[in-house]
Design a protein that fits this description.
This protein is α+β, with helices and mostly antiparallel strands. It contains 1 helix and 8 strands; from the N terminus they run H-E-E-E-E-E-E-E-E.
Amino acid sequence: MRSGFTWLELLLATSVAAVFLALAQGPLLHFSSLLTDQYTTSAKQRQLDRFLLMLKTELIQAGYALGDDAEPVQVSSDEVLLLADLNRDGDLNDTRERISYRFRAADKKLQRRSGSGSYQTLVEEVGAISFSLGPGRDLPMSPPQHCLGVGVRLDPDAEDISYTLCPIFL
């Protein structure tokens, strides 16, 4: 007697395996799209973190060597302007002395401009970003603080995330 499988047994086993593979294909494709969405959101979050760190660093420098009547941080709902006379020459015309961040809702881009240069895109395809200026903590032996509020929605269906950035006085 010969050992082995008949053609009928092979055909039956192959058809059962094909049915299981067809049933598993749907969840696998869905899982793949979930991973792609998660990767995109994670990349946007990393870009946003870099933006917040850059903004915080420049917020600390804002107001350096400006007069008492100057407003080093100027805020509208979609733009922030930071001023600092870093080289103490009495004007704000040099690079990095006038820094602007803006959110363009039309193309969903967060952009930055230094001096009189052109805008550079920092984060693309952001749901929404808004800026606000609010009171900070009044600490003894330090000037009054004005903190910058940043509201972010990475995706249209995501929740709003709120950040508060305050300058540090030593």
